[in-house]
Amino acid sequence: MSGLEGIPIHIQTAPHAGANAQAILAELETALQALLDTGKEHSIDLRSLPLLPGELDYLQHTLGTGEVRVEIDALGKSDVRETAYRGVWWVAHYNTLDEVMAEFIEVSFCPDIVRAQRDDVRESLDALSARLAGNEE
Q1: Domain membership flag for residue 7
Q2: For each of the chain's 137 residues, which pLDDT tens digit applies?
């Protein structure tokens, strides 16, 4: 007896790299090339795909985590995080119970949800102009 019998062994498997996940990665490669060539953005709705068990984990593991993360509180929480591949973003939208309601991988220089909307910027300009003119609301 070597005394090793009492040491528990836990076998962990790597996230599953199914055909769907591989196809998504290939689609992302094509989308990144299109973004560079034409500026065309691309989005993949992960909740609409027939992913096998482990494929979502595989995608998250493979894409990794980048340097940018944005949390948005507007009509529910949204989490936008850059993956380790710049220009590839993981975007999740949650309900009030913190359950994921929608999940996307977006290929863009900056996801639309993070960009200020033109009407919102106009409203802010009007408010700032009123403040500077002494007509604060």
Answers
A1: no
A2: 566 677 776 655 555 578 999 999 999 999 999 999 999 999 999 999 999 999 999 999 999 999 999 999 987 899 999 999 999 999 999 998 889 999 999 999 999 889 988 999 999 999 999 999 987 65
**Secondary structure letter of residue 114 according to DSSP:** T
Residue among 75, 80, 83 at smallest CA distance from 114: 80
Q: Which helix or strand (DSSP H or E) is residue 92 part of?
A: strand 88-94
CATH code of the domain in which 38 resides: 3.30.1370.140
Q: Kindly state the tokens that stand for 43.
A: 């989005």
- Rounded to two decimals, the pTM is 0.80
Q: How many C-beta atoms surround the C-beta of residue 55 within 10 A?
A: 21
Query: Is residue 20 a contact partner of residue 52, using CB atoms and an 8 Å limit?
Result: yes
